[in-house]
Prior knowledge:
Helix content is 42%, strand content 6%. By secondary structure, the chain is mainly alpha-helical.
Amino acid sequence: MATGNSDAQKNIxxxxxxxxxxxxxxxxxxxxxxxxxxxxxxxxxxHLYISHACPWxxxxxxxxxxxxxxxxxxxxxxxxxxxxxxxxxxxxADLAIDGAEDDPLYGVSHLRELYFKANPEYxxxxxxxxxxxxxxxxxxxxxxxxxxxxxNTAFNDQxxxxxxxxxxxxxxxxxxxxxxxxxxxxTVNNGVYKSGFATTQAAYEAAVKPLFTxxxxxEGLLNxxxxxxxxxxxxxxxxxxxxxxxxxxxxxxxxxxxxxxIRHNYPNINRWMKQLYWNNSAFKDTTNFEHIKxxxxxxxxxxxxxxxxxxxxxxxxxxL
Length: 320
């Protein structure tokens, strides 16, 4: 069997370039669920693999719940204890934790085995989310931004009216959503990783300063507002939420993003995050703080050599 880039999986810091800066690889599988296409919107045909720890995967879990796709697309949660071979399923994980599951389709030990099943010559990273076609036995897509847009519209004509009416990418706001996503992705969603995975002081400072400049900008945009764009929930909120809800528990300390915390320095962002979490079960029920904390602190041994998982913060998220 091909080995892919297993060496890169063994050392989180090999994902940084020679100049010490972290540059995220592009997703490799970019197919679309659509009528008349290779992957039609058939109920029960697709299976979603996620990690509760991963913010990118968390996006897809939220939209799956928002759109009422639970009976359309099954989901399996990998263990947060990512080791030398990438994301393990429950039976292969070094430690046990509630909520981790085994692969129900093929009984494999690691997610990487499904990547090689789809493409024996695959040389990329073994990432979540990953959307699998059970009929064709291959990967449809592993890019979260595209998966959530598929979930938003692909099954609408099979959904109850109230779920079909939910539109997180409305036409009248698409231009604003796209432009906001661009800078939020670069400086916030990916900015925390660029800060945390930097291996030189210069690379770290080049990432952490724009991160907090953007948090300041978001704080202003959310002043007096419940949603980031317009007066309704959009994918811009979902994409930002999965980073912000991890910020104080993980990124502030583990990734050295400590110029401020959400709860103490960004009251508007904090209020917005808490309202989404406490008032919408699609956000609360798909956020697993134990998986989040254990993955980052246990798996990133070049950052945290002894794998010690901190108790705090207490509370993990404040009440309304």
